[in-house]
Specification:
The structure holds 2 protein chains of 2 kinds. Chain A is mainly α. Chain A has helices at about 1-20, 25-50, 60-65, 65-70, 70-75, 80-95, 100-115, 140-155, 170-175, 180-195, 200-215, 220-235, 240-260, 275-280, 290-300, 305-315, 320-325, 335-355, 375-380, 385-425, and strands at about 120, 125. Chain A folds into 2 domains: about 25-205, no CATH class; about 220-425, no CATH class. Chain A has a two-stranded antiparallel ribbon with strand order 1-2. Chain B has a single domain, classed as 3-Layer(aba) Sandwich (Rossmann fold), CATH 3.40.50.2300. In chain B, about 40% of the residues lie in helices and about 20% in strands. Chain B has a 4-stranded parallel β-sheet with strand order 2-1-3-4, sandwiched between helices. In chain B, helix 1 (about 10-25) packs across helix 4. The chains are: A mainly alpha, B alpha/beta.
Chain lengths: ~425, ~100
């Protein structure tokens, strides 16, 4: 067994984890993550605009009348998240090349803005269509941010820059150093968008469409769910590895759902944004380990398990489960890896069908991930009480699946503890 | 002694940090421990740390973090998985002391 585990570790999980450390993936990951505070705060204005309260209440009616105004902070943050992401990717990629990060961020933003054609509206003058700066623009953002920073750093490394005499202050000379790469990027983007008249967003939307559909299918949900617990089985942070690749797609779903909700749509387009995984599947952390901890608290007989249950329950309520994963341990422990992988696959399948049947509103708001799951699920669905029921059902399922495996493990621990105590007596 | 902890987001180490501090107190040592996420290492590493310890769940990033720490002249070590629990204080303290020596 341990040979097999070592084989998997060396030939599968370790190389895949290293792959996620690739420079551009890392920059995209950190860029997207840097925009999350704006998404979290911005999305809450959707709750203020559509409060989960009876329609007859005065405050609900007031909110409905003023929804457009209440949503302005949302429109300036989450609705145009790609603008924030471009800055984040440009900054992080430039930093990884050890070239000026601020210039990298600015060049990426310029490249993104140059994919859009402003139009002239009477009374207002020039207007930028905001839709391309939202979820729809994210793939284009990733592509142009990477290309423009690559141009910037190649110019810098091959010294294709304008050098000023040494007496010039460094802040001035730095802005001159960016002159040639900025010119190249702007000419290139102008050539594509203005001269050739290509709308990159339409083009990339078409190419990405199959991916967007696949990631939102049942299979598209189960694959990342499996991979995340698979990585954790070796003690590697699964979400951090899988999220490097999948998070952009998950954020597109979230932003699209929130756009539909803000427009008052009756049904939301996507089932599986990141919030779907967070609140319905990863209850208590990756592997839905809250169920295991509850089983531990209720049924543990060995001293170690009793103690561990008491110390890990509080972090588990807030979805922090490294103490469970390394404390049990689940890592490299076949007996517990089985329910650790199986439980989320089952609750994910159930949740997927429940949401796709329209029994629960799809998630479209992003509460901070450290909230207890019932609260997070309630807020994330814009205040759908049925989401709380699903969370409770999923917790029950996970307790039931973990319980028999836990009891076996607990018995082993009792046997070990008895061995230990008889040994100490003899010694 | 100033100890820098690195994990995925700086959240989970906070629990282990507490265990290490308590173990330090038992040995009469006042430890200053701070937990950060792996993307903050570059900014934080030069702020006067005596040692840098990397959580087991991001060991695929250890090489990169180790390099940053070494460049800054800070000894760096991976935390053994068995030590990364609320009850892992003693083992963690031992690992720390071996690293300092």
């Amino acid at each position: 067994m341990s040979k097999f585990v070592n084989f998997l570790e060396n030939n599968l999980s370790a190389p895949m984890a290293r792959l996620s450390e690739q420079r551009h993936l890392l920059a995209v990951r950190d860029g997207v993550i840097s925009s999350l505070p704006f998404i979290i705060v911005g999305s809450f204005f959707l709750i203020f605009a559509f409060p989960p309260l009876p329609e007859s209440w005065a405050i609900t009616q007031w909110a409905a009348e003023h929804a457009a105004d209440i949503l302005i902070p949302y429109r300036m943050t989450m609705f145009i998240m790609s603008l924030y992401v471009a800055f984040g990717i440009g900054y992080n990629l430039a930093k990884s090349y050890k070239v000026d990060p601020l210039s990298g961020a600015q060049i990426a933003v310029a490249a993104l803005l140059l994919t859009i054609t402003p139009s002239v509206v009477e009374e207002l003058g020039f207007v930028l269509p905001m839709q391309y700066l939202g979820g729809h623009g994210l793939f284009v953002t990733i592509i142009v941010s990477i290309i423009s920073v690559e141009i910037f750093r190649v110019c810098k490394q091959k010294r294709i820059t304008i050098k000023l005499p040494e007496q010039v202050p460094s802040s001035v000379s730095r802005s001159f150093e960016a002159l040639i790469p900025v010119a190249i990027v702007i000419f290139l983007m102008t050539l594509i968008t203005v001269v050739m008249g290509v709308n990159l967003h339409h083009l990339v939307d078409k190419i990405a469409a199959p991916l967007v559909t696949a990631g939102d299918s049942l299979f598209g949900v189960l694959v990342p769910v499996f991979l995340i617990t698979f990585f954790w089985s070796f003690g590697i942070h699964g979400v951090s590895v899988v999220g490097s690749v999948a998070r952009p797609l998950w954020e597109v779903y979230l932003v699209n759902n929130s756009e539909a909700a803000a427009n008052g749509a009756a049904t939301l387009p996507h089932i599986a944004p990141e919030t779907f995984y967070q609140w319905f599947i990863w209850i208590g952390g990756s592997g839905a380990t809250l169920g295991l901890v509850i089983a531990m608290l209720l049924f543990a007989r060995s001293k170690y398990m009793k103690n561990l249950g008491k110390t890990v329950i509080v972090p588990s309520l807030f979805n922090i489960n490294e103490p469970v994963i390394f404390g049990m341990p689940i890592v490299l422990n076949p007996l517990l890896i089985i329910p650790f992988i199986v439980t989320p696959l089952i609750t994910a399948t159930l949740s997927y069908f429940v949401v796709s049947f329209g029994w629960i509103t799809p998630t479209y708001i992003m509460p901070p991930w450290t909230l207890p799951a019932p609260i997070g699920a309630y807020l994330s669905t814009g205040g759908d009480w049925r989401a709380v029921v699903l969370v409770l059902v999923n917790i029950t399922i996970s307790v039931l699946i973990y319980l028999p495996f836990f009891r076996l493990y607990d018995k082993k621990m009792i046997a070990m503890e008895q061995d230990d105590s008889t040994n100490t007596v003899q010694n | 002694m100033n100890v820098l902890f690195v994990c995925a987001g700086g959240m989970s180490s906070a629990i282990v940090v507490k265990a290490l501090k308590e173990e330090g107190k038992k040995h009469g040592q006042d430890l200053h421990v701070h937990a950060i996420g792996s993307n903050e290492v570059a900014e934080e590493i030069n702020n006067n740390w005596d040692v840098c310890m990397v959580a087991p769940q991001i060991r695929h990033r250890f090489k990169q973090i180790n390099q940053q720490a070494t460049e800054a002249g800070v000894p760096c070590e991976a935390i053994p998985p068995q030590a990364y629990t609320p009850m892992g204080g003693p083992l963690l303290y031992k690992t720390l002391n071996e690293l300092v020596e």
